[in-house]
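Form 7-S
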Amino acid sequence: ARGRRRLGTGLVLGPAAYVAVLLLAVFPAFPPGGYVYGDRLYGDFATDLPGALLYLARPDHLAARLATPENGLYLAGLLVPVAFLPLLAPGVLLLAVQLPLNMVSSWPYAHEIRYHYVAPIVPFVFLALVRVLGRAARHPKVAIAALAVGVLAGQVLFASPWLFPREGQRWWRGLATDAEEKQDVSALLERIAPEASVSAHYRFL
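Output:
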């Protein structure tokens, strides 16, 4: 931002080299399959990271990964509450490198705003919003009115049931589709002796 190109270049190349060493040397030295979460990122379209990069280098492949209904809903959930104003500061949004990674990811949860995979992106959405509101200082009423509409629309369309859970036997974690899982987990818990010590996967917890 201040034109300190040498510093900026170092901040880009240094972490890039560090990640390259991790992916190409450290991870393969421990798990035989390389990056332990590689299948979550590219498991349905490549077998390794170089193959994934070659696949996504083709514009038609990349467009097919990005232009999906899930990604459309994902972007709407991110941008409707801020009235799409951050799109007016695309330079700031481009810094949220986790956004395109989530959109091409093989992991379904990465495409949903209700999971923690969206957390690294949210600060850049609001940084872009701040940038836009700063530019609109001469005409703040229009921007504030748009933001108010966006907040209301976001609450109506995307209010997370995890934040405001619905009550009742048909709901678990606020979602009707999880009710069957609640029954299964309850049945498993009943089979454990009261005095037993257990170590369970997070989904079971």
